[in-house]
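I am still getting used to backbone structure tokens and would like to learn alongside you. Label the sequence line and the structure token line clearly, so we can match residues to local backbone shapes. Go ahead whenever you are ready, and we will take it from there:
>
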Amino acid sequence: MIDRFLKRNVPSWIVLVIDCYIVINTFILAYFIRFNFEMTFDTSKFRYQLPLVLAAALISFIAIGSYKGIIRHTSFRDAANVTLASFVMLLLLCGFVLLNRIFGVLLNFTIPLSILVIHFLLNMLFLVTSRNLFKEIYNLLTSTAKHYKRIMIYGAGEAGLLAYSVLKNDKDSHVQIVGFIDDDLSKSKKYIQGLKIFHSNKINSKFIKKHRIDEVVLAIQKIKPIRLLEISNALGNLNINVKIIPPAKNWIDGDLKVKQIKNLKIEDLLGRESIVLDNPILKKEFNDKVILITGAAGSIGSEISKQVANYNYKHLILIDQAESDLYDIQQFLLYKKLERITVIVADVRNKNRMEAIFNKYKPNYIFHAAAYKHVPLMEKSPFEAVYVNVGGTKNMADLAIKYDVEKFVMISTDKAVNPTNVMGATKRIAEMYINSQNGKGITKFVTTRFGNVLGSNGSVIPLFKAQIEQGGPITVTHKDITRYFMTIPEACSLVLEAGIMGEGGVIFVFDMGESIKIYDLAQNMIRLSGLKFPEDIDIKITGLRPGEKIYEELLADGELTAKTYHDKIMIAKTKPMNKAIVAKSIEELCALNFEMNYEATVKKMKEIVPEFISNNSTYEKLDFIESNT
């Protein structure tokens, strides 16, 4: 009932009456101030003067419209309107007094000009103050009429003040701001907007309990990712909900809105600076070109398709054997009303089918994202891993040379580095075949190599989310296992950038910063889901899966890097190899694969990739055989 009453706006005529009442009283107060609060002035003149002051006030307020503002949303503009109305009132009264002195319209009637000036100043003070007083009373009533979340703002700088203003003035946010937190010791115990600033080292469980804090809003624009991770972990251990304001460049029309203050996402906790690739050469490079993307229904392939669709291509060909997912990306592009796109259900393993597509569309660029990538599954199915990851890549590379494709960009993985599993080894072999084909025709072959992608079908993120939704536990294979992470848009930006870099025959490696401990990632996801670890969701250690590493690498033994024009992208200087021998060995592997002898296939892979040492796998015995021969 009270809440419904408070939501109603005060009628404008009531505001006008209150303003006029204030003006009458400030006029009387002006006399007292002028005569040092002594009754030495003639009060009988008030019967002439007060109606005149009231008339001047009504004319001024109605002309300016200062009474029309909603009191509970009083702003600087309302204060300016009140000031202007008071000034107009002063002019009217001064004008009347001066004309009366000249023409003597009303005998024995005058108002000292000093009183009119004092009256003007009092009007500004009391009219503006009354509005803000009513606003604060409203805020107090609304805060007691409903339970509001008690929040603190982390960051007492410009972004923190902006967050304060946005949250305080938005009544639908239902929050009560308790104070500020800052890492700067010099700001500690000082006040902003009447709220105390607390140093970050004072924020502990006792403090949270004492001040009944429900939520913390991170309002620091130029925070280092590693510091963001530290803050998130510290607050997460205190079981506080954490939100964050977006970068200024993402604000709507340059202004921060309450709806943009979001819960902290796992992407915010990568522990490194996000890569930003904005190369204008891409527009020129892809202009009027036929671009073919394999694996277009997958996480990486679909994002590449979406990014390429922003350019002025001639024709975009999307290929995948996953019918349902391919349909989804097709519908997305149709919804965007994009044209000159052909979606084809096809398998890169079928060379005849691929050749028919090459012959019909004559692609200029190929982004090869089709691959099997789940380590445990491929460890049990070496045939499929070789058939798709090696054979499919070989088919596409051979056809690229035959049909004079300008650039062939292959998407690889950090699991190809010193592989310990079948999947990683097949990707390394695919890298080797790609490099061996460079120079055979006009096609420039390049490879992009990066770590895990947040949110991809092969990432731990969807698995962890599903396990949290089911009530846990989250399963982690080893407490010390670490992985490199990047977002899907970052990965695909890198792939596109590689499409215009270099002369071919190179592997591009992304500077992914520090690797992230999966156990810590799981804890962060539990906290970001609003749950407690281990009370609500526990973490279970299940043991390493077949072929799984504890630590991933981006460079193989003996590989070095060379810089490119982008400080986050490097070229891996791979070991020299005999291209003819490599190509022949890979052809033999593809032929041997059809015999369905898994051990023979894996043994051949180990011959091609000597650094392929199986881990926690049935194929470890082949390494033992090799070491004894």
